[in-house]
């Protein structure tokens, strides 16, 4: 499979790979290799990690990103504004991203991560897109969603 370097760096860095391998209990590779030795390829069934001798499923990758988005929302102030929400950046709380809900497209955000994923994942990694329930998200959209959900309680 051909996956662009831009999408690879967004979805599956070596650090993300290491985290997923640890979550899955696949740590034997660490006795012989370090994180910088990890080599991987995108296959139709998942991501082959040569040093670990295993395939990480797209479902496991999707679950990792769901958990990461939710865990990052705790740090993000959210403000309801006309037509959507303003969600602060993790790195710079003076910078806000506009998040809104579109009936046809779902949750949308103006951040680079969301734009990259929205433009590339459905075309370049349709298996991951399916594992994500055909929904693209980022930590800003997760924060806005959880903010609204909490308001409805």
Walk me through what this model shows.
By secondary structure, this protein is α+β, with helices and mostly antiparallel strands. 42% of the residues lie in helices and 20% in strands. It is built from six helices and seven strands; from the N terminus they run ααβββαββββααα. The protein has helices spanning 5-11, 14-23, 58-72, 112-124, 126-131, 139-152; strands at 40-42, 46-49, 54-57, 78-81, 84-88, 96-102, 106-109. The strands form two sheets. A four-stranded antiparallel β-sheet has the order 4-5-6-7, covered by helices on one side. Strands 1-2-3 form a three-stranded antiparallel β-sheet. A hairpin with a 2-residue loop joins strand 4 (78-81) and strand 5 (84-88). Helix 1 (5-11) crosses helix 4 and helix 3 packs across helix 6. The longest helix is centred in the middle third of the chain and has 15 residues, at 58-72. The N and C termini lie far apart (44 Å). The mean pLDDT is 92.
Query: Cα-atom Rg, whole angstroms?
Result: 17 Å
In the predicted model, the low-confidence regions spanning at least 5 consecutive residues are none
Mean pLDDT: 92
Tell me what portion of residues adopts beta-strand conformation.
15-25%
| H-E string | HHEEEHEEEEHHH
Query: What percentage of residues falls in helices of 4 or more residues?
Result: 40-55%
* Largest sheet geometry: 4 strands, antiparallel
Structural class: alpha+beta
Strand order of the largest sheet: 4-5-6-7
**SS elements, strand count:** 7
Shape: elongated
Distance between the termini: 44 Å
Give the number of helices.
6
